[in-house]
């Protein structure tokens, strides 16, 4: 086990709704990254936080937003859900800033948008 | 063209076989190369992490990087049914996001 946990495990939402996914990083890990993994695809980088500030973002629209808290927990918020948002959402934590260290992935949250 | 190309498989081999998994990439700025294993309904697990060209061995796993050809490989010796999973290559430049391949699904048949 990586020590990274995510909740909930599964989630079903309807188009247009909003969703919040949660991640608890390993203690002492200052960096958390979020990824979207569609079925049969590799993870796609959404954004990364280092010490509660966003310091990198992939090609995702602003309706994908996040927060990181001092207690090593973080959130991914998605507004105005679309059918294509159905995917496995993964968080990964690491010690340092900007991917200089090994990333440890959580088990993911599977989001289904109907 | 995708930055990282990986054959999705599936790849089916008998137990004990040597498995070869490969990725090619187009971004010459990639410096760090990783291989992850992902079991069904689980998050990716880091197997190998390499920086320079050449080989790196860890137990039954060998990672190979050829920067001149923009080609990386993962070899699994004496494959076991427990190796059945999806294998993801990943790479990044020094200060940027990790870019993953699509993953190759491997099945090792007893």
- Which regions of chain A contain 5 or more consecutive residues with pLDDT less than 50? none
What global shape of chain B is seen? globular
SS content category of chain B: mainly beta
Q: How large is the radius of gyration of chain B?
A: 13 Å
The N- to C-terminal Cα distance of chain B equals 37 Å
Give me the Rg of chain A, rounded.
Answer: 13 Å
Number of strands of chain B: 11
Strand proportion of chain A, as a percent range, falls in over 45%
Number of helix segments of chain A?
0
The largest sheet of chain B is: 6 strands, mixed
Overall residue-averaged pLDDT value of chain B:
93
Broad shape of chain A? globular
Helix content percent band of chain B: under 10%
Can you describe this structure in just a few lines?
The complex is a heterodimer of chains A (114) and B (110). Chain A has 114 residues and is mostly beta strands. Helix content of chain A is 0%, strand content 51%.
Topology:
The complex is a heterodimer of chains A (about 110) and B (about 110).
Chain A: E1 5-7, E2 10-13, E3 19-24, E4 31-37, E5 44-50, E6 53-57, E7 64-68, E8 73-78, E9 87-94, E10 104-105, E11 109-113
Parallel strand pairs in A: 2-11
Antiparallel strand pairs in A: 1-3, 3-8, 4-5, 4-9, 5-6, 7-8, 9-10, 9-11
Chain B: E1 4-6, E2 11-14, E3 19-25, E4 32-38, E5 45-50, E6 54-58, E7 61-66, E8 71-76, E9 85-92, E10 99-100, E11 104-109
Parallel strand pairs in B: 2-11
Antiparallel strand pairs in B: 1-3, 3-8, 4-5, 4-9, 6-7, 7-8, 9-10, 9-11
Question: Key features?
Answer:
heterodimer; A: 114 residues; mainly beta; seven-stranded mixed β-sheet; four-stranded antiparallel β-sheet; 0% helix; B: 110 residues; six-stranded mixed β-sheet; globular
Describe what you observe in this structure:
In chain A, the strands form two sheets. In chain A, strands 2, 4, 5, 6, 9, 10 and 11 form a seven-stranded mixed β-sheet that branches. Chain A is 0% helix and 51% strand. The mean pLDDT of chain A is 92. With 114 residues, chain A is mainly beta. Chain A has strands at 5-7, 10-13, 19-24, 31-37, 44-50, 53-57, 64-68, 73-78, 87-94, 104-105, 109-113. In chain B, the strands form two sheets. In chain B, strands 2, 4, 5, 9, 10 and 11 form a six-stranded mixed β-sheet that branches. A five-stranded antiparallel β-sheet of chain B has the order 1-3-8-7-6, with no helix packed on it. Chain B has 110 residues and is mainly β. Chain B is globular. The model of chain B has no long low-confidence stretch (mean pLDDT 93). In chain B, 0% of the residues lie in helices and 55% in strands. In chain B, a hairpin with a 4-residue loop joins strand 7 (61-66) and strand 8 (71-76). The chains are: A mainly beta (114), B mainly beta (110).
